[in-house]
Amino acid sequence: MTNTPDAPREWLQLRLDAPQREQEALEEALFACGALSVTLEDAGDEPVFEEGQTWSQGIFKALFDPAETDAGAVLACLREIVPQFSGTPRFEQIQEQDWVAATQAQFQAQAFGPRLWVAPTWATAPDAAAVLLRLDPGQAFGTGAHPTTALCLSWLDAQVRGGETLLDYGCGSGILAIAALLLGARQAYGVDTDPTALAVARENALLNGVAERLWLGSPEDFAAAHGALQADLVVANILAGPLRELAPVLAAHCRPGGALALSGILAEQADWVAEPYAPHFALHPPIQQEEWIRLDGIRRSS
Question: 10-96, what's its fold?
Fold first, then answer.
């Protein structure tokens, strides 16, 4: 294939579905078989919360130079290295594009209530943005794009009126704690087990001018430094299993009359997650967005 200087370069792209158990071996095999780049994308809409974790079902996209690649030879090479891979390989010709511009086009300013907007640094802030949180997609989960985060952001927009303390347990990128501070909370505490997430959250707090009001640390550091904290607002956007286990901890750190929001919960998991919280909180009916729900409620006085 000949490309003129003014014509976009073309690539041979291999798409291949891959369950989690095959992903590591297939990534290595694709490079060994001549791929110039390999990316793994989510095959559905499954959040990833932990460093090193991948999706249960992914899609590999591998780029090859069409002038130097024979599709049949690539498939034979893959079969030799990973004989029993389960996906169906699909080759297609694609034209090169401005990948940075394409990625940026996917993330634009978005509203999460009457006041709060979230926008990446490259997006123009709308005139309607009473409160604007700047956040670029990065290593730590949480840009507002996923329903679990969106459900929490809209809750914060409704709850924060000024002067509150907030605990964000499993803070990731820090988006929820930072949003609360921008909306008027006095102090926020972000807790996460992942040092990378905490580092990203610090950068995002600096970007948004709230770093002095945001404490960040591990669960162990939080227990040592703020073990007696009873916050006005407690939010946790993680996974159903950890949320159940954390019920005593989150209840202990929410003052009587304070408010709680839990997300990262599939609709069919709502009752299971609610069970250990019901003795401590008067829970409202779940709020659903797509297949995800938010549980929220008010801390009982006893």
Answer: Alpha-Beta Plaits (3.30.70)
